[in-house]
TrEMBL record:
Keyword Hydrolase appears in the UniProt entry: yes
Gene3D superfamilies in UniProt: 1.50.10.10
Keyword Acetylation belongs to the record: no
Highest taxon in the source lineage: Eukaryota
Assigned protein family: Belongs to the glycosyl hydrolase 88 family.
Keywords on record: Hydrolase
Protein name per the record: Glucuronyl hydrolase
Originating species: Sporothrix bragantina
Coiled coil: none
Length: 505
């Protein structure tokens, strides 16, 4: 990769309308070009009936004894008495928006890009109308209860909880209630901004680590790198309702603050062809709300305060890519590129045990680009190193968003590099982590959708090998590792949607 110049307009900014256009540019890499054909071939498992059927089945079956839903799917254990079946969390939990987001990701392609669903022409003729209706009805059923969460001012996670499903409801159906929910959520998130700190408070407290009991909001101001992914909510609301432009200004200010507090320059490492600074990330920073000074840097879910938790790095990649796409600010461009380069560097230099020989791949290896749960954590089992597939697919989304934004500014070489890197990560993730327990669907004689497990056994999520939390100091109830995970599936599906919007697949 070559060095990054300044591809931007005067003052390094664009309007919200210009930035939105960047996100939806039609790429000259499409399904008919050699690269487009290569990508579609590499990701054939992503555009398969199995993926469509799994989400649709879960959308229907998880409503049993849960309609209207109060419990939302989160984890699929890979062992134990609940192996293969979703375990759920309460509607108030931060992950609740991802499952309806999965439904709408498939629904958007069912409406706009039905050829991407992996259905044969015969199946499409019989299944597609009923599939669309099923996804539309269940999507709204899962989404509606989350409208009440938009007015919460005690959480920063409203972007995760609201955007994955309310944004497509607004864009696909011009559902005014969905847009109102987005704007309400953005105002709620904005209320957590403190001008003294130039940041949005992430957590009100932290008391689920041994020996850590942070409860005073007067003496502590907790900010996590995950918060960067909630800035998209603020930018989007400001773009849809220009009178709320202050929300976009808050997002930009928050992002600038975290450039200094959460990004660590890695001056001792380089990647060939890249001349900028590489960045790792701090997960959690505790500011003194009176002085604005950093009191402590910690990790809540990673290995150690000075390690690089792979999903935290992915949140930073996705968040800063979105910030650059909205604003065009060069500081966000350099941050996103430096974060991506360090992420790729750590994948490339990971120990050899990450390479797994898989018989069904003809003896080829997979796993090099499926990140370890923390890049600096000791390998506990060299025969089964602990991964976090969700980190890889979340980072890949950020790479595609940044790729398209760069293409909009004429940075075609760098844009192609990041697109290809994203495809490499997702292909390797599908090779290693795709659940082998697959599903088919058809319409029966009564005109109902029927789902059938292709192979013996059942696994509700698309991907395996994610890790929510393996921090040794976390309370046992907070520790979950090596499992299926709803937001791994969401970012995988969103990746597919991004490619189809761009005409690549």
């Amino acid at each position: 990769m070559g060095s990054i110049g300044n591809p931007l307009a005067v003052n390094g900014t664009t309007s919200h309308e210009d930035a939105t256009a960047v996100l939806h540019l039609t790429s000259d890499i499409n399904a008919t070009t050699p690269l487009g054909k290569s990508i579609r071939l590499k990701l054939s498992n992503l555009f398969s009936e199995n993926v469509t059927a799994k989400i649709t089945r879960a959308a229907v079956e998880q409503l049993k004894n849960n309609n209207p839903p109060v419990q939302y799917p989160e984890i699929v254990p890979q062992s134990g008495s609940n192996k293969g079946h979703y375990q759920s969390r309460e509607v108030e939990f931060w992950i609740s928006g991802f499952f309806p987001g999965c439904i709408y990701a498939v629904l958007e392609r069912a409406i706009k890009f039905p050829s991407s669903l992996g259905l044969t022409s015969e199946e499409a003729a019989s299944c597609l109308p009923l599939l669309r209706k099923t996804l539309e009805v269940t999507g709204k059923t899962w989404s509606d209860p989350l409208r009440s969460q938009a007015s919460r001012t005690n959480t920063h996670d409203l972007g995760f909880m609201i955007m994955p499903h309310m944004r497509p409801r607004w864009e696909l159906y011009h559902d005014r209630q969905a847009l109102d929910t987005i704007i309400t959520a953005a105002e709620s998130l904005g209320s957590r901004y403190d001008g003294r700190l130039a940041a949005i408070r992430s957590w009100d407290n932290m008391d689920w680590h041994d020996g850590v009991n942070i409860t005073s909001m007067e003496d502590n101001f907790l900010v996590i790198i995950d918060s960067m992914c909630n800035m998209d909510l603020l930018y989007y609301a400001a773009a849809q309702a220009p009178e709320r432009r202050k929300l976009a200004e808050i997002a930009t200010t928050h992002a600038r603050t975290l450039l200094k507090s959460h990004l660590r320059p890695e001056t001792s490492v380089t990647r060939k062809g890249y001349t900028g600074t590489l960045y790792s990330t701090v997960h959690l920073v505790n500011f003194d709300p009176k002085t604005g000074q950093i009191q402590a840097s910690r990790t809540a879910q990673g290995y150690a305060a000075d390690s690089t938790w792979s999903r935290g790095q992915a949140w930073a990649i996705l968040g800063y890519a979105q910030c650059f796409a909205w604003t065009g600010n060069t500081e966000f461009l350099h941050a996103a590129c430096g974060l991506i380069e360090y992420f790729l560097y750590r994948l490339e230099v990971a120990p050899s045990c990450v390479d797994v020989v898989l018989p069904d791949l003809g003896g080829r290896t997979a796993g090099r680009y499926v990140p370890l749960w923390d890049f600096d954590a000791p390998i506990e089992d060299p025969f089964n190193p602990l991964r976090d597939a969700s980190a890889g697919v979340a980072a890949a989304n950020g790479m595609v968003i940044l790729s398209q934004a760069l293409r909009g500014y004429g940075q075609d070489v760098l844009a192609r590099c990041y697109l290809e890197a994203a495809v490499t990560i997702v292909k390797d993730t599908m090779d290693l982590s795709l659940a082998r327990e697959k599903v088919q669907m058809h319409v029966d004689g009564r005109g109902a959708l029927v789902f059938q497990d292709v192979e013996e056994g059942r696994f509700d999520s698309i991907l395996k090998h994610s890790t929510v939390n393996n921090n040794s100091a976390s309370h046992p109830s907070k520790k979950h590792k090596d499992h299926g995970l709803v937001y791994a599936d969401y970012y995988l599906l969103e990746f597919a949607t991004l490619l189809t919007r761009l005409g690549i697949c």
